[in-house]
Amino acid sequence: MEPTTTRAALHEFCTALFGAELATRVVSLARPGFELTRAAPGDAAGNSRFGGHPMLEPGTPWPTCEGVPLSLFAVLDTDALAPWLDGLIPAGTGLLNFFYLDSESELCDPAAAEVASEFFCDAQELGAVIAARSGRAVETDPPARSSVFTPIPWAASPGFAFPDTYDPAWGTLRVEPGIYDEDIEYIRDYVSISNLDPDNDWVSRPDHILAENLAFGWSVFPTGGSPTRRNGQDPNLYHHLLQLSDQDEWRIGGDGGWMHWSIPTEALRSGDFSQAIPTPDIW
């Protein structure tokens, strides 16, 4: 299926569960995304992968924080993903390189921990997303002190994702902003419970997606938190880019955690990835 056809099938599915009017509101939250899994030979989504070396255009400066180089965590090949994203990103965006300051893995530079302690974990200074046109991008050797994780090519399975249980996006569906809406609270609770029950109707929806490693779509916060912004910015103005569960070679603090990167939706649509921010979930 292509996105428009799938969205129509999703609306029909939700109408059977919630009625036509509520279905229209619920489906408005559905975002195209991709479950990322280790690729079999020949099945990778272009150059998409965890770890390895970044794919950058010649002359691109390596991102740093307080003089310590960031580490490449992942590459997404948006040329391979673009048809399902249905115009979400500008044509020709190419490769997205995801960086963060590695201060926790066994590979990290000792100075990184000291630098990281000076910032909140979601500080923009700690991360970067750098786009590179596919025709000009070359695999780039990292500088000293930057961690290099073993590359894992990704296959990408398309689908539609919905917000996590406590994501403030559910509040945008209320008939009156800021006023309790019993119907929406029921649906949010139904979706939350159903995601934990593989036999429930909700997980049988068309192109269901609920993944630990996820490109685009909506972020999942296992702690029960939500992507709120410390500076008071409305998180509903941001779009999710990438989610990584713990990998063998890295962790982001505490007892564990999942890594996310997000970006203002307007910046995403214009291709300004300099506005991307890290939004980790640490427990």
UniProtKB/TrEMBL annotation:
Q: Which Gene3D superfamilies match?
A: YwqG-like
Fetch the InterPro entries from UniProt. DUF1963 (IPR015315), YwqG-like_sf (IPR035948)
Name of protein: DUF1963 domain-containing protein
What organism does the UniProt record list as the source? Wenjunlia vitaminophila
